[in-house]
């Protein structure tokens, strides 16, 4: 497996485009289309929020067939809490895009992101769709990735190439999301495509596994979105076939996980106001559920995240969050490391020169490891710091 | 029941003092003593964090006897994650204070608050204890309340008077805590005194009930402390007797809850960087556990709290947090009110003029009510907004 340039069109059989439909202000790109030249195997993971946007409800129903030909995504408006009218808006747009593509509307998956509680400007979007369809090309992956952004600062794409059964094949994808990002739910908008041939049921299982270890193990602010979705489409164009239980399955699963991990890391690094990222790694937990809960509690703690922002070491905050997580451990045996340095042993904070401590926290990526000495399970979470900039961005989002 | 001036010495039989022992910088008051002239019934609620400071472990064991004569509290250093040495430090200080008071050290309760992972400056504290003991008086309640503060801006005290069985009696208290404040755990340092006569076992039950509805239903940042403790002492000096199952029990329980509610509100209003407070009131939930979980999730959401800071209404964030809480409800029936105004009906956001919306959020106390239409249970949480100031305070706490 090797990393290659490209994004959602890196795999054969996919083209994409991104245009400005006037949903966001200032002619920003805000409407994206990814389409498959052949009917493709499709799978998705959705937010587990009880409040779900209209496009989530529609895509959820459609992806059950295991087949899709296009993904239409808009930013600037989440089309959530918009009642029956919002549902009709989303249905209408998927109809409007299906027609020029010559595909049944049931094969159009849709997603929206942006402010909750406002109607989509349907007519403006409709008017933009012919341009969106006309501009599709393999070269326009970055425009699509740009068009799905909200408060994100950077386009986030990644692609890999590998050989399965003698066939060169690819996976590529794009992701958005920089606030309302939380673990244990689908946490962003992402589209991943591949040119392997794979049964929808296997694609679904591998996507769920990969999302669990990557997109669902990150947090910006612990808030769970009503809209977020990870789509995967497989065209089969490469000739590589992924069958359950074979070597190819392991290879593909690994590549898919690596790809989503890269996208998830890009997302956290681009978290609202983030200046650095932190990996919380819990080892020696009694169960993997407890390990994950502990990593999550530390990663979500505003006090830990502000500590990271200030690069002002405060190991007590990390231990307090671990102690509040429900993970079972003996505080007298707790060990903690920041990067290579042991900072807590036998439950007591070790003396640490201020200069050393600051240097440990001033890395672009800080790894904090907690050894609970209670078992052999581990868990990981990736998060970013909580800065004044995060508050500035979110205190004035809707206006 | 009526509110009166005063604090932890409002009830008869208690005196208090606060001095500077040099734990904090700049000669700030940092050592407090509350003492009872007679052996008093005692009860306490402690943090449920797995990582607990030495004074928590010691006070927990001592309060089981149901009897106490003094509470010694220092700020500036939490004496947590300090290993066996920290435990010995705390034992030694309680011995040193017991001696001039002429009481057994087992009747001294202790608490510490401040930075985690540093040793107490025991010798400095010892040197200050004679002054601390000498300065005790009924007039020095505010000095005691001042000495327990950390990043708090204001002294927080309250007192009430009521008549039970023909006897005029009082309850008074002080509280500290403005960061690392979270629900469902003991969340602060507080000492409440009363001059009723009450059995320790009944006092413990009523304190637990009252704390559950008040101190444990507030949040500043969702972080759980390793140290926090609510102590209650009853001297019996007023002649009023509180017996289980009698009218007096209900009167006293009500007064205790009101007192702790007032202290909890003062605490949230003084939350780190807080500019306004918000009550989240969930009605129509299936169970009261779900109601409380829902109120808690909304109150903890950084996106809701930054919205409050910016007074920029975004009902979607509130609904998204409710939907992520695990509470069971039909999103199509969700209703939401900000103050008197309905802002969501039938799951859809109602159009709201920007000026109106901002006015609703620009109150010093904003009440957000969520009607889930799923049952008849309700829950409440009190929180404050998340401001840039919170980040500034917490990015540079240890230095």
Name given to the CATH homologous superfamily of the largest domain in chain A: L-amino peptidase D-ALA esterase/amidase
| CATH class term of the largest domain in chain A | Alpha Beta
Q: How many distinct beta strands of chain A?
A: 18
Biggest chain pair interface: A-B, 70 and 70 residues
Quaternary assembly: homodimer
Q: What is the averaged pLDDT score of chain A? A: 90
Distance, first to last CA of chain A: 45 Å
Low-confidence stretches of chain A: 182-187
Beta percentage of chain A is 25-35%
Count of helical segments of chain A?
11
Per CATH, what is the topology of the largest domain in chain A? L-amino peptidase D-ALA esterase/amidase
Q: How many individual domains of chain A?
A: 2
The biggest beta sheet of chain A reads: 9 strands, mixed
Note the run of SSEs of chain A as H and E.
EEEHEHEHHEEEEHEEEHEHHHEEEHEEH
> Structural class given helices, strands, pairing of chain A?
alpha/beta
- The level of helicity of chain A is 25-40%
The radius of gyration over CA of chain A amounts to 22 Å
Basic shape of chain A: globular
* CATH architecture tag of the largest domain in chain A: 4-Layer Sandwich
